[in-house]
Amino acid sequence: MKAVAAAWAAAWAAWEWECKFPGFEFTLSVIAKKALLGKRAGPFASDYLKINMAEIMPTIFFGHGSPMNAIGQNSYTEAWTAIGQSIPRPKAILCVSAHWYIPAVAVTAMVRPRTIHDFGGFPAELFEVQYPAPGSTELAGRIQELLGENVIADDRHWGLDHGTWSVLVHVFPEADIPVVQLSIIETEPASFHYDLGKKLAPLRDEGVLVIGSGNLVHNLHTYAWGRHDVDPFDWALRFDEKARELILEDDHKPLINYESLGRDALLSVPTPDHYLPLLYILALRREGESVTFPVEGYDGGSISMTSVQIG
Questions:
Q1: What is the pLDDT of residues 96-107, one digit of tens each?
Q2: Residues 6+ apart with CB under 8 A from 284
Q3: At 225, which CATH number?
């Protein structure tokens, strides 16, 4: 009898069982089995002490545009609200924001992250906005586990910048879901960020909504300041269209090496900070997953508001 039990335990630990049915997916993951066998399975292991029959969380890139969208009602913010109403409620949110662009890989690890107003020259009303979502030291630890010991746990300096809260104030206005930010290390190439994104894949099975916040096209040198409803530049349209085509084809290599796409790419991505969050999201796509573009449009002629939803 003991031999049979030992063989069963070995088989249990070695295989991942997965059954898929229309409308939902049943997965008994390796993490679940480790938890049931009493082995360490990360900070979220307790959630797997019962069989997980939840859908894999989608992952979304948001084109966030102007900070004024936080207090505005327009087609973009209405679409963000609709996204929040249409997806499963996440256990926590991880955001890769264009506005935490520093020479290190860091993750926010405070219990109550502050709302950062990292801009100037806007109405006082915008500076009064607060997004008091809790943080999650548990999720921060899990991210360190996935990405490696060199990830800095920032428990005092950063918080939630406008790349995160100007979108989430519409997607989840109650601000009652824990939010953690992951920085973008400015000294590494695009391929590094894509590879780092791949390492975050297990979070989608753990109830975490991974989002990127930036803009596919983001050129402030050509932006029509004070004029939002102007025709987009032809180079912006072409690059946006080419990027969508490659995303739908699941052909990520040219998007990683975006400079190779020519003049349109160089004008659309003059600096990488707002583009790189997209690569984290593309890296999380699984074979056969659907891709949609739930938000479209341009602001000021040279900022694309395109959003990309996977799953």
A1: 999 999 999 999
A2: 59, 197, 198, 200, 201, 204, 210, 310
A3: 3.40.830.10
DSSP character at residue 215 = -
Q: Give the residues of the chain that fall short of pLDDT 50.
A: 1-43, 45-53
Q: Examine residue 184 and state whether it is found in any structural domain, yes or no.
A: yes
Q: Are residues 97 and 26 in the same domain?
A: no
Region for 11 from its dihedrals, namely left if φ exceeds 0, alpha if ψ lies in -120 to 50, beta otherwise: alpha
- Cα–Cα dist 269/260, whole Å: 12
For 193, the token pair is 């960020």
> What's the number of domains the chain is made of?
2
**Cβ proximity of 70 and 213 under 8 Å:** no
Q: Strand pairing of 308-310 and 291-292?
A: antiparallel
**Could you tell me if 307 and 62 are in contact, meaning their C-beta atoms sit under 8 angstroms apart?**
yes
Residues 101 and 28 in one domain: no
190 in a domain, yes or no? yes
Cα-flanking dihedrals φ and ψ of residue 161, to 5°? Answer: -85, 175
Between CA 102 and CA 203 the distance in angstroms is 23
Partners of 60 in the beta sheet? Answer: 211, 309
Is residue 256 within 8 Å of 194, Cβ to Cβ? yes
DSSP 308: E
Tell me the per-residue pLDDT of 173-213, one tens digit each, with 9 for 90 and over.
Answer: 999 999 999 999 999 999 999 999 999 999 999 999 999 99
Q: Say if CB 160 and CB 130 are below 8 A apart.
A: no
Please answer whether residues 151 and 107 qualify as being in contact, where contact means their C-beta atoms are separated by less than 8 angstroms.
Answer: yes
Phi–psi pair at 62, nearest 5 degrees: -105, 130
Q: What is the CA radius of gyration of the chain?
A: 20
